[in-house]
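QUALITY CONTROL LOG
STEP: pairwise intake check
CHECKER ROLE: data steward
CRITERIA: each record must contain a sequence immediately followed by its structure tokens, with no blank fields

ENTRY 1 OF 2
RESULT FIELD BELOW
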Amino acid sequence: MKTVLRALLVIVVIAVAAGAFFYWNPLWVADNLVQLGLWRAGVKSEYVEAGGYRLHYFEAQPAGGGGEPLLLIHGLGARSEEWAKMIPAMAQRGFHVYAPDLPGYGRSSRPADADYSIAMEENAMVAFAKAVGLQRTFVGGWSMGGWIAAKLTLDHPEMVERLVLYDSAGLYFPAEFGADLFLPSDAAGVVNLMKVLSPHPHVLPDFAMRAVLRRIAANGWVVQRSMSSMMGGSELLDFRLQEIRSPVLLVWGAEDRLIPLIVGRRMHEEIAGSSLSVIAGCGHLAPRECWRPVVETTAEFLQENPPMRGAEKTLADQSSSALH
């Protein structure tokens, strides 16, 4: 009987300790669950020295190896884990996927003297591509990452086979928000940011909200420098997009409040022969919250030969049941 009681006591102590750890470190636990899921899906977590930075990246290949290379570039305040649903899904469809953390973000190096501008991040991605042996590749960019990917395509057309832009920044438009949207200092600010990013924002318990605010504060100086670069206007692509010659697919959440669909339609008009896929019921986080139709339209575009030109369609979101 005493042995049973001791065992029950140990179980209770472990459960209490685990609960306390989760209470104080919910994002660490969530991050590790995501990384465990990627590892179980055969996705490798790697590092490479490139352009003077130590860059972390995820890499995944089809089961038999090989695959057409696909470079995925995340957005402002994000990291490579944001592609967690798309990385294994695109590998299953025959692509050799690379998803790096930009300098300043995720597990990549974060030099204190860097400006974290679009030009700096573009140069880092050029260096990354060379470091992992990519000579010519498919490129996908999300939000700020779309801006970086489009600029890379313009400055280094020899590197980009086809380009996919997901709810991309890079054009001027009269925003309904200020820079402080991305640097909330209280729970109300986080809730407002989540409402702008998603038409179906999650409700966070207080302990998780505090963890989110701690993470935002820790990385706020990098986000602020990136925002200063973008809002300066010198790197806007308004008068350059028409120079893109690579086949381009634009993927946009129909309910994007951060970078509204009207911006995507402007890009569609300015990039000759570009195609546009609109994801119904989805906001700015289409590659994460609506990943199934995003994966399908991306794979279709990248695999079709000759590449599709000028197509436009609306797709229903089929991902919610897999995400919640």
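ENTRY 2 OF 2
RESULT FIELD BELOW
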Amino acid sequence: MRTKLIAGNWKMNLNFIEAKELFRDVQAIENNDKAIALCVPACYLSAFSNAVDPFIFAQDVSAHVKGAYTGEVSASMLASLHIMGSLVGHSERRQYHAESASVLKEKVDRLLENNLIALYCIGETIEERNEQKHEAVIQKQIIEVLGHLTSEQMKNVIIAYEPVWAIGTGVTATTSQAQEMHAFIRNEIERSFGQTCASQIKILYGGSMNASNAKELLACPDVDGGLIGGASLKVDDFKFIYES
């Protein structure tokens, strides 16, 4: 049985005092049958390293192993801090930093080489959905970045489905839309990596999950948790989602 994972993505928010306070508040959430992760800004990673409750993820990782890449943070650096893994391919990185599939593939490889988890984000735009291209877009994003991996390597991959049209817009996919896409993703994983991998991989919903819709979304059989944006900055909302 897959354990639910509730992951908060703080994005570029909070000064260090605010971050420490929120981190302590999240640590105080009573742990039950679900895991908690926090994707924190790079400058705070060392302060929260070694934490296992919640797990700590970076928000990005370099595609390079090491070298003259000013401002970049390598997977080996994350590993040396005992960070759990990193987001890869978040829609904001794709949009604002023009990250291509080839770059994302390299980032996933760097993480896996260091025994870290790649939390790989995929999703379609409103135009792609309206044109009924959403399944083809998702399939391509899976194949281009993960298709070269083995089923054994896929044990260190988590997928987050984040419909771009439902991030920061106040619009959320209906439970039927979310379940439909999560089931489609799981079927694609089964086609590429086998039934065992498909049954074990976590697929999170990352499209504006909040206190009002979390319970219904998390009840979907193929939704294994959430990648939470704005609501992760408010401990009461984050706790409510976790307990939903």
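INTAKE CHECK: passed for both entries
DESCRIPTIVE NOTE, ENTRY 2: The domain at 4-243 is CATH 3.20.20.70 (TIM Barrel).
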